[in-house]
Amino acid sequence: MSSRQAIRRLDYTPPSYLIDRVDLTFELSDTHAKVISRLIIKRNKGVSSDTPLVLHGEELTLEGIKLDGAPLTSAHYVVDETSLTIANMPDDGILEIVTRLLPAENTSLMGLYQSNGNFFTQCEAEGFRKITYYLDRPDVMAKFTTTIIADKTKFPVLLSNGNRVGSGTMDKNRHWVKWVDPFKKPAYLFALVAGKLVVLAGTHTTPSKRNINIEIYVEPGNLDKCHHALAAAQKAMAWDEERFGLEYDLDTYMIVAVSDFNMGAMENKGLNIFNTKFVLAKPDTATDVDFDGIDSVVAHEYFHNWTGNRVTCRDWFQLSLKEGLTVYRDQEFSSDIGSRAVQRISNVRALRETQFAEDAGPQAHPIRPDEYLEINNFYTWTIYEKGSEVVRMYATLLGIDGFRAGMELYFKRHDGQAVTCDDFRAAMADANGVDLSQFERWYSQAGTPVLRASAQYNEAAHTYTLTITQSCAPTPGQAEKLPFHLPFAIGLIDRRGHDLPLQLLGESVAGDTTRVLDIRDTTQTFTFINVPCPPVPSLLRDFSAPVVLEYDYSDDELVFLMANDSDAFARWEAANTFALQLLKNQYAAAGRGEKVAAPAAFIAAYKKLLSSDKLDPALVALMLELPRENYLLEQLSDVDPVRLFEVCRSIKHQIARELRQELLAVYQHLNDGTPYAYDGEQVARRSLKNICLDYLAELDEPMIAQLLAKQYQRADNMTDRLAALKALVNRDGGEAQLADFAAQWQSDALVMDKWFALQATSRRPGALSRVQQLLEHPGFSIKNPNKVRSLITAFCLANPPHFHAADGYGYAFAADHIIELDKINPQIAARLASAFNRWTKVDAGRRELMQQELERIRGTEGLSSDTFEIVTKALG
Ligand code: TRP
Ligand code: ZN
C-alpha cells in the first residue's frame, strides 16, 4: 500500500537526475522474470552534488546493483517499499540493477503480468516501477534498448518498442530478440510482449513514400477477427496525414490484443497493447457499436504517437494535454469516416451521462487537477471527454485552419519534449495572434457552467435581443468561479423553418446563418437586426461548449425545432429536451400519486419522426431514444430510482401502444432481409429498426413474441441477434434464447461478456440473484476486468432500479465486491466504487444505506490508495 500523501501540481520540480539511455534484458521463465537494467545517468544542470539519487520501485526483489562496474553494498544505498536511494552519486555514471519479479502472481495488471500464459506489460501511469528501479516520471525521457530471452516453444513471439535489430538461439530451448527504440521516451511508454501469438499484417504507404508495416498480434484462432482493426489502422494513418500532416515515424506499427486489461488500450511507442474488445470482431460476434468502438480506439492509440509520445506530458497533472487532445482527434476521425451528426450526438450524450455527473459530484476536478492521492483515479471522464470538449472549443473559436496552425506551432516548438497544458494553449494563441488568457479557466475550474438565455423580439424595430448569463456552481475546494471564455453557436429560424442570415447591431451586412458568439462575461447581450418576424432560436448549435443551457422553450417550439432545425445536434437536442421535461414532470406527478401519461403533442412528435422519409434513419433512432435513468437522476433530487424507472417504463409502454402501427411499419420496412454489411447506410437502418423493436417489445402480444424470437433466430449478425435477445430478456426473461446463446458462444470470451451484461442490466425482478448465480458460472472470473465490468460493474452502474433496490442489497453487493476486488486489482475496485458517488442524490432511506456501505469500505484494513481516495471523497 502506498502512502496517503497527496501529490500537488504546484510542488512540481524538475528531476535532479536524467537518464540518457536504458538497456534492458528480460529473462522470462514460467515461475519468474529477471530484469537486468543498465542506466546511463547524469545529474541535472544546477543540481548540487550532495543531492541523492532516488529511484522509484515497488514490489521488487533487488538481486544486485553496480555503479560503474563496481558492486554496491547495502552501505551505499537504502531500499524501502517505494524507492531505492543512493546518497553519493557522481555527476554521471552507469548503474546496473538486477531485479526479480513474479508476473504470474501480478493480478493488478500493472507492470509485467501474465494473461493466458503470455507476458504483457502496462506501464502507464506508474507501472514501470514494478519492473525495475527507475526515474518513473514522464519528464525523464531516455532511449531504450530491450533484449528478451525466453523459451522458444512457449514464447515464439518476443516484442518491444521500436525496431527489431537482432535475434538468435541460446542454450537449451531458449531464444532471444533485441529491440532498439530510436526515439527517447518516458518509461510509461515502455512495452514488452512475449507469447504464443499469430499475426495479421498489412501495409500503408505515407505521402513521403515510406512503407509502414502494420502488424496485429492475437492468440491463435483469432486471425479472422482482425481485419476491421487493420483497416482502422490504415484509415487512421491516412487521416492524420491528410488532416494534420502527421506521418508515422517507425517502420512497423504493432498492435497486440490481450484479454486481461484494465482499460481500453495503451499507446506504447510502436507497440500498442489493446484490450481484445477493441481488436477482435467479425459480424457474427460483434455489434455495429463494437465495430465503431474499434475504429475509435485504434485511431486514438495511433494518434497518441504524435499527441502523447512525440510530445508528452511534463507531469501527470497535464494528462488531459495528451488525452483530451487525442480524444478530440479520434472523434474528428470518426466524424470524417462516418456520420458527423451521429458522432457528435453520441459523444454529447455520453459526456452528459458520465462527465456532467462527475463534475456535479464529490470527485469533481478541473481537466488539469491540482492534487491526487492515486494518479490511476484520474483517468476520468473529465480528463478525457471534457478535455476533448475544451480542445474542440479552440477549433470552434479559431476555425479549423487556425486550429491546424496552432497544432503545427505546438509540434514545431515541442517535438521531443515533455510539456504542459499551458504550452498547448500558448501555441494556439501565438499561432493565431489571439489572447487566450481567460480560456485558462477551463483548465483550473471544475464544474459545468450553466448558461441561462433569454430573448426579446422588438416588433417595431425588427430586432431580436439575446441575453446570456453564465454561472458555475461550487465544487469541492472551489467555492467561487470566475466567468469562462466560450464559443456559443446560434441560429435564428423563421416561421417557415428557414435559417435567417444573422446581422448584429453595428454590422453593415448580414453574415452566415450560424454565428459563434464570443462569451466572456457573466452577462452579455447580443442584438440582431433586420429580423423580420419573431424567430425560434436554435441555441448551442453543435454543442459548441460543454455547458448546461437553460432556455424556456415551449413544447410547440421544441416540436418546431425537431422538424426544422438545420443543425443536426440542435434538432436532436430539441427531442431530447422535450423528452427530458416530460419525464421530469411525470416523475413529479407519480410522486403526487397521479397517473403517468405523455401528452398527445409528444406522441404526435414521435409519430412524425417515424413517418419522416427525409431524415437519416440513424438520427431518427437517436431522437426516439428516451434519456437514460442515470441522466435523469442528475436532474432531480431525493430520488426514488425505482419510481423513476417505473415512470420511464410506463411512458415507453404508452409510446409502444399508441404508435404500434407506425413502429411495426418502420420495423418491417427496414427488416427487408438484405444480407448483412457493415456500412453507414446499413448501420443507420439497423439502429432505427432495433429501436422500433425495443419499443414493440413492451407489448404483451403473441405476435410480438414471435417477431422477437424470429429476429433472434434468423439474424445473420450480432447487432440484430443481441438486440432481439436484450428485448427478450427484459420482456419475459428470454430463458430459452439465453441458454441457446451461451451454448453457441461459451468459448468466445467477448461474446460471453455481452451475455453476462444483458443479464446484469435486466430490469426484470430477480436481477441481483441472477448476477450472484452468474458469479459461479465457469465463464466468469473475478480476475478478468472485462468479466467484472460486464457482470458486476454493469449491474452497479447501469441497472439503477436494481442497484438502488430499497432493501439495500444492491449496495451491500457492490461494497462486498469492491472490498474483494481491492485486494486483486485496486484500479478496477476504485472504478466500481464510483457507483456510490451520487449517494446524496437519492432519497433519505437509500442515502443512509449507501453511506453505511461507504463507511464499511473505508474501514476495511489494508485498503488501496485507489479505493481509499474515491471512497473518502464520496463521503465528503
Ligand atoms: N493512455 C491510455 C489511453 O488513453 C490509457 C490507459 C491504458 C491506462 N491502460 C491504462 C491508464 C492503465 C492507466 C492505467 O489510451
Ligand atoms: Zn489516450
UniProtKB/TrEMBL annotation:
This is Aminopeptidase N. It catalyses: Release of an N-terminal amino acid, Xaa-|-Yaa- from a peptide, amide or arylamide. Xaa is preferably Ala, but may be most amino acids including Pro (slow action). When a terminal hydrophobic residue is followed by a prolyl residue, the two may be released as an intact Xaa-Pro dipeptide. One of its GO terms (molecular function) is alanyl aminopeptidase activity. Belongs to the peptidase M1 family. Its EC number is 3.4.11.2. Keywords: Aminopeptidase, Hydrolase, Metal-binding, Metalloprotease, Protease, Zinc. Residues 447-552 form the Peptidase M1 alanyl aminopeptidase Ig-like fold domain. The keyword Protease applies. It comes from Deefgea tanakiae. Residues 555-875 form the Peptidase M1 alanyl aminopeptidase C-terminal domain.
